[in-house]
Amino acid sequence: MARKSFPMKPLVSFLSEIPFRLPRNVDVFRWNNVSISNAIHDRPVKFQKYISLVQRSGQLSNQTLVFHLEGALLRSSSLFPYFMPVAFEAAGGIFRSVLLFLLYPLVWLVGKEMGLKIMVFVCFVGIRKDKFRVGTAVLPRFFLEDVGREGFDIVMSCGKKIAVSDLPTVMVEGFLKDYLSIEAVVGRELKVINGYFVGLMEDKKAGAVALNERLGEKIMGSHAIAFGSFSFFLDEQLFTHCEEVYWVTDAEKKNWHVLPRKRYPKPLIFQDGRLAFRPTPLATLAMFMWIPLGFFLFITRLIVSLLLPYKVAFPILASSGMRSVMSIPEPLATSNKKQEKRRGTLYVCNHRTMIDPLYVAAALLKPSLAAATHRLDKFNAVVAPIKTISLIRDREKDAKTMDKLLSQGDLVLFPEGTTSREPYQLRFSPLFAEMSDDIVPVALDVQVSMFYGSTAVGLKCLDSVFQLLNPYPTCNVKILEKVPSSETYRLGGKSRFEVANYVQNEIAESLGFECTSLTRKDKYKILAGMSQGGKKRSPRAKLRFPAKLYFGRRTFLRAVSTSQIISGVHIPLGPVIPMRSKALK
């Protein structure tokens, strides 16, 4: 039997699709212009420079703008920082992120289209479509931090706005619609089999039909203009419906300024994800180099805080990089009634991380301080060096628990009920106002450089681990003046809502934060698509470890639950802040 020859034709066909990176001196405009001229046929199109669009920005209120997200709005031309959070937050995140980083040289070499396909495959293969929340909970922060003020002004000055992106739609749609109020988003669609992403994008030719249909419906009968960049090759479908095309060069984009937070169309109140930095290739390399040393520091910091007394542990923790800035007022004169002299002081704090009670105990030098928090997992309860009690969100039972703790000593309480990262304060639960009139507000502000020590849908048991993995975690602790008797529930005759509002405003004013009426329910609806307030929750898919752990005669089966997202429900991010200038009634 004759041996069959190797099929060279498919191999050559595959290799021919790899567009290796062109030299830097290639005339990109001429290359794009040829493709565009072939696409638009005989339709007249005016090509103009970006500066021409800036000069007429005041006359665009009635115009329809078709803009390219990466080319016209974002300052950076690299797509890697947007895929790394997707890989890091997905199942098997550390392995996906390492693989994505190792493949980055190949991604850079083979060109943008093939490199994009590689990054999409690594980040999305095997992920359930109905559980993907990174596009709405994590990526908006990275996009907003990279928006150029000049490009933003042009886009927002137009009446009708349509965004086109080379990125998958699930990555950009939440940011564009929820934060910029874009009417339509046209991105790359991902292939799905049995509810799972397979890591492949739909063919551009197939997507071009949908692009023409969607753009045709939006632009039909209007004078549309296009806005893009030289560094991104815009498909010809972008220009077939536009009469004017404006280009911005990379040199011009380098002079763009970062969009200030106060100019966000909708405030960024809630955001999730572990990465606290922009994961550029160099920053990601630094992270992977730091993790082994950071894990050693985590073990050291944990052992020191558990075994050594505060006065001995403070210098050691400070030498490991942990920083605390404490502000404590002069001792307050105690004028409590006789029946409350034996009760402890209630320290009411805003909530930033899972180890906030430790910062407060360290500032007060009270290792006997007790803490009451919500959703405390068993791991953090075991490793906590102070007494920590988990509240169950039952008013009567929680009131009895707090009353018992106050009868035994001082208590730290977090009325927000959940952590918050941004400079906003959630609504305070007023239950604490009924527990005691001896209330001391405490303002906390935590800064991290690498990892966030909180998450909405991730593993809660790793919150303290990620917080202590940071090279220089810093916490500012401000012990404020005791709440005056005239502003308390029993002695002052104020309602519990008025007391809660007063304490919230005092803490927010000392930190420069903004008060909102949003609650933990709003946070979990926005970030996780589920309710955390009642007993009935969204369905949860369990990820079980196959092996059982045997310790003596007892058998333990550990299971980690990950939230099941309700598909088909659009929950907008970044709601308008409902301010509370008056007490709730």
TrEMBL record:
Q: Which named protein is this?
A: Phospholipid/glycerol acyltransferase domain-containing protein
Q: How does it sit in the membrane?
A: Multi-pass membrane protein
- Identify one Gene Ontology CC term for this UniProt entry: membrane
What GO annotations for molecular function exist for this entry?
glycerol-3-phosphate 2-O-acyltransferase activity; phosphatase activity
Record's keyword terms, sorted: Acyltransferase, Membrane, Transferase, Transmembrane, Transmembrane helix
Domain Phospholipid/glycerol acyltransferase residue range list = 345-447
Q: Which organism is it from?
A: Dovyalis caffra
Pfam families for the chain = Acyltransferase, HAD_RAM2_N
Q: Where does this one sit in the cell?
A: Membrane
Species classification? Eukaryota, Viridiplantae, Streptophyta, Embryophyta, Tracheophyta
The record's family statement is:
Belongs to the GPAT/DAPAT family.
Tell me the GO BP annotations in alphabetical order: cutin biosynthetic process
